[in-house]
Structure formats: structure tokens, C-alpha cells
Amino acid sequence: TVSNLGLNTNEIKDQGAQFLADVLRNNMALAELSIADNHIGDAGAQILRDVLRNNTTIQKLNLFQNNKISAALRKQLEKEEKRLY
Q1: CB crowding 8-45: b at 16 or more within 10 Å, else e
Q2: Residue 61: closest CA among 84, 79, 36
Q3: In a structure prediction context, what are the per-residue pLDDT tens digits for the chain, which is 85 residues long?
Q4: How far apart are CA 82 and CA 85, in angstroms?
Q5: What CATH fold (topology level) applies to the domain 4-80?
Q6: pTM (2 decimals)?
Q7: Which residues lie across from 33 on neighbouring strands?
């Protein structure tokens, strides 16, 4: 069983974030996911935030260097969700 997965620098973007969210909704094993530097924007970040609200298995989600996420949304996400970094 995979508990940590790194998918950094893979051009995931918002469309890929939606695909990941679909997979993560049924996740029962993955505790840490790193998707840094993937050109994810506000739409993708919000989708992933919604998954975290319903999935307590994921303990850490790395969105570092996804510079298309607005500063305002990033601040809101950091305040709301302590598992994001």
C-alpha cells in the first residue's frame, strides 16, 4: 500500500487536480501527497480543499510553488486547512 506519493513538477494543472480529487475521494491509504510546482490554480486548489474536508486519511498535501493559486486563496486555505503546506 502506498502511503506517500510525490508528483511534483508534472504539469498537473487544474484538470489534473480534478482527476486527483476523484481518486482521492475513495482513498483509504494515502497519508501524504506532494503536488508542488504543477501549475495548479484557484479552481484546482479549491477542488483539492473540498476533498480534504471529507478525507481524513490524508494528513499532508503539498501545494508549494503552484504560483497560479492567488495569494488571497492561499491565505484562506492555510487558515482553514492545516494539512496543506
Answers
A1: eeeebbbebbeebbeebeeeeebeebbbbbbbbbbbbb
A2: 84
A3: 899 999 999 999 999 999 999 999 999 999 999 999 999 999 999 999 999 999 999 999 999 999 999 999 999 888 888 877 7
A4: 8
A5: 3.80.10
A6: 0.90
A7: 5, 61
